[in-house]
């Protein structure tokens, strides 16, 4: 039964961590997206934000993976992201203090079991407090899991590492490697820390051995981050490399200065009359702060070096997209929107080239087609929270409309070869109206206000009126034999071609800068 209890305790702890992390993501997503640059405007502010996020999520890995998504979405620069990653180290130290202060001085299961009941009651009774309720449930499960681990370790663990002399370099390396392996297997340094503190509380390991184990566990998070970022863009690879270098350096520095650091920790703890769990928490905090103080003052030259090692070869139109951000809808939708802005500007340049020089570059049009498909696939991976409200839904719907209009615009581009007819002076006004729309598209960016969509609408309406009037004139000229039938048909096709281009430019832009809301759904569908 002891082994079953141990496995169950780990499962309860993991379930609590997942609920806590997912709930905090849903609570903070939109607000965090809006204020991220404000919070991370300086190195100290960025480090504090990284530490705060890690304290909330109780996982530096989650903070790092979120940071990768923020950089890929264009919400943070790489330099800003680096300060968050550095600060996340300090935030991860809070777990040790929580466990040391609460986890083994009382029966925390009796204290936190009611919190689970209160949380579930809030979830079912009040819709508005549902997320707060799940937050309580997550916190309660974490500490119930810790209590279960504490009980099971006393029954299950019958071995000791006392034969590993922590004073010899070989045994120190073995303990560091064991800690790293624990994080790699458990996919969380937090779980490794809790297990190590449990082992220390049950006299399975000595304080020296526990300190070396948690030092190795910290370095193991780099492997977890690397696995979690597989499939990401170069921005993800840079942050993973930074994470590896930071944590690898902390491991080396911590090991080389271990006698000094361990001695200082014990000196402070002796004066405060602290037990071994508090000493371990202090050591855990000390080497993480050492890492922050080592890297934060030099984060700018460090980031420049990383950019040199992994150069930024333009991922052209989809550089904002990263598969790791799909669980944060607000960030993922903004990344998709920015990618579609880039794609529309790119397609606008190709359209202008066709209108002004009669050149149609099929390779570039294929690139646009492929990237539109990539954005569509990315949108399908976004996990929208039905309970969160209508903003994310409206943004998602608008982006699908944008893709539809861009694809129709692309289809029109490929439909005919109007090179000669487009130079016809009869259509100079129509061409100028389309070129005016494309000029506006060239200045389009993610800060363009929604009211600006009226400029594209006005040009498209003028184009439609021009098309109606001149189409009637061309057909009348053909009927009275003033114009050859074949020539008339070509001119009408060219006129319709210009009108359709102008229309799709307007509609694609409108959906990009003025997202749909639920009350507009049927009106928008009728317009489209």
From TrEMBL:
Transmembrane stretches, start-end: 6-24, 65-88, 108-125, 132-150, 170-200, 212-233, 239-265, 277-298
Presence of the UniProt keyword Membrane in the record: yes
Record's keyword terms, sorted: Cell membrane, Membrane, Transmembrane, Transmembrane helix
Subcellular localization, as worded in the UniProt entry: Cell membrane
Membrane topology: Multi-pass membrane protein
PANTHER family, per the entry: SODIUM-DEPENDENT PHOSPHATE TRANSPORT PROTEIN 2B, SOLUTE CARRIER FAMILY 34 SODIUM PHOSPHATE , MEMBER 2-RELATED
Name of the protein described by the UniProt record: Na/Pi symporter
């Amino acid at each position: 039964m002891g082994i079953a209890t141990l496995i169950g305790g780990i499962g309860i702890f993991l379930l609590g961590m997942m609920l806590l992390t997912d709930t905090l993501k849903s609570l903070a997503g939109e607000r965090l997206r809006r204020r991220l640059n404000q919070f991370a405007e300086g190195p100290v502010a960025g480090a504090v934000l990284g530490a705060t996020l890690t304290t909330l999520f109780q996982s530096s890995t989650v903070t790092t993976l979120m940071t990768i998504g923020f950089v890929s979405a264009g919400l943070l620069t790489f330099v800003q992201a680096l300060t968050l990653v550095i600060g996340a180290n300090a935030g991860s130290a809070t777990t040790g203090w929580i466990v040391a202060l609460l986890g083994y001085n009382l029966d925390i299961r009796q204290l936190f079991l009611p919190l689970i009941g209160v949380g579930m009651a809030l979830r079912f009774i009040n819709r508005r407090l549902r997320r707060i309720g799940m937050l309580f449930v997550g916190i309660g499960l974490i500490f119930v899991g810790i209590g279960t681990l504490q009980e099971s370790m006393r029954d299950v663990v019958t071995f000791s590492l006392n034969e590993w002399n922590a004073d010899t370099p070989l045994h120190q390396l073995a303990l560091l490697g064991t800690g790293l392996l624990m994080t790699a297997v458990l996919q969380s340094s937090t779980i490794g820390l809790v297990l190590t503190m449990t082992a220390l509380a049950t006299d399975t390991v000595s304080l020296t051995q526990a300190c070396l184990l948690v030092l190795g566990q910290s370095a193991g998070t780099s492997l977890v981050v690397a696995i979690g970022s597989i499939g990401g863009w170069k921005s993800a690879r840079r942050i993973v490399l930074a994470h590896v270098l930071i944590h690898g350096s902390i491991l080396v520095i911590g090991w080389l200065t271990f006698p000094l650091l361990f001695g200082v920790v014990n000196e402070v703890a002796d004066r405060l009359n602290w037990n071994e769990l508090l000493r371990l928490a202090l050591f855990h905090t000390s080497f993480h702060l050492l890492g922050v103080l080592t890297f934060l003052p030099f984060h700018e030259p460090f980031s420049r070096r990383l950019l040199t090692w992994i150069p930024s070869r333009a991922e052209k139109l989809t550089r904002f997209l990263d598969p790791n951000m799909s669980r944060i809808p607000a960030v993922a939708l903004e990344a998709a929107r920015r990618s579609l802005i880039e794609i529309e500007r790119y397609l606008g340049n190709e359209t202008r080239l066709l209108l002004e020089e009669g050149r149609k570059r099929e390779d570039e049009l294929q690139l646009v087609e492929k990237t539109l498909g990539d954005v569509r696939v990315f949108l399908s991976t976004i996990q929208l929270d039905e309970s969160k409200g209508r903003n994310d839904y409206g943004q998602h719907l608008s982006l699908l409309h944008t893709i539809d209009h861009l694809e129709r615009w692309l289809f029109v581009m490929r439909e005919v070869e109007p090179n000669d007819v487009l130079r016809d002076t009869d259509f100079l006004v129509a061409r100028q109206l389309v070129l005016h729309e494309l000029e506006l598209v060239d200045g389009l960016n993610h800060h363009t206000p929604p009211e600006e969509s009226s400029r594209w609408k006005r040009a498209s309406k003028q184009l439609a009126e021009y098309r109606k009037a001149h189409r009637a004139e061309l057909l009348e000229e053909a009927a009275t034999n003033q114009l050859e039938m074949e020539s008339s048909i070509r001119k009408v096709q060219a006129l319709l071609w210009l009108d359709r281009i102008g229309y799709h430019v307007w509609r694609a832009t409108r959906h990009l800068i003025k997202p749909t809301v639920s009350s507009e759904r049927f009106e928008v569908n009728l317009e489209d």
